[in-house]
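Predict the structure of 2EXR domain-containing protein.
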Amino acid sequence: MAAEQDDMASPGRRISLASDTICAFPIRRASLVSQTFHTSPEGPASHSSQMSFSIISELTFTPSNGTQPLCLRTEIRGPAGQPPIVTSAPSSASQTPASSFPQFIKLPPEVRKMIWKYSFGGARVFGLAPCATWTTMMVDHRPPPSGAACRESRHLFQQCGEFLFGAEGLAIKSLWFRPSEDILYLDHMLVEYLEHESYYSGCDFTTIQNVAINWCGRCDESNLRRLADALVEFPSCKRMILVMSHGEPPYEDDVEFLHIRDNDQRRVCFYKGERLHWAGLKQALEEHWRKDSEEDLEEDSGADSGGSSEGELQLPPLEAVEVVPRRTASTSA
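Done. Here is the predicted structure for 2EXR domain-containing protein.
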């Protein structure tokens, strides 16, 4: 709050106050400003009738914890012994905690839907436990808490994902999984166990779209055979991710993938006695698939369906990644 000094200096003029814009910063700061001015009442009067008053302004800015966004108190006092002319009680810019957003319901439904989906988080990696009969995943990812915030978020929660991988096909120990976002990660040796009824009994893999297989470092007939078998077990697969690990994969921890670009010059695989980078391995896999794997895959899938079209046998887009343990607040500290 500022006072026009020129008007106050001239006798017989009213004092006008102009308001300034006060910005709150995320630091704790308080200031107490007190100014005393002297002026004379309007009309002819002697200088002995001059009176004085003071303006006290107290500003409290946002503290670090955000509990009191803004507090203002302004007081204009007259001559000594008289009550204040103007007093404003402390007020805050927001009476609600900084963590709440009461205007959220007024947003368009499309915007609210985007916010809810964003709150569900990014893609999660589900590591398939070896030869599992009861616990199917190495890391049991919990459903996002925002999925149970209200009826609207619960409806989107049910639309975006489903509960899979329960023991014996039941809801027991099932996990919330988003087929279009989340990734199923398994070792290349586990592909052959997916067909056995004694392992992963009741697990439905037909809706999974993102499959990551730990690549053993060689490009040969047996590994390509497992790649073809994996596509039979995951008919909805739209991304085949080959994990290039340099050591024992961190199955027991939550992991994340670091993408390998096509122009990356690191040698990732042996093929016909030569170490290939990812672009060369990708080309070799695609050529080998077209030449040797299509007929075998057609026999496996055509036994039940009576024949499959060529489009269903196409190799999905291939990606290469490196796997590393996911860093959390506890591990980074």
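Confidence is low (pLDDT under 50) at residues 1-40, 306-311.
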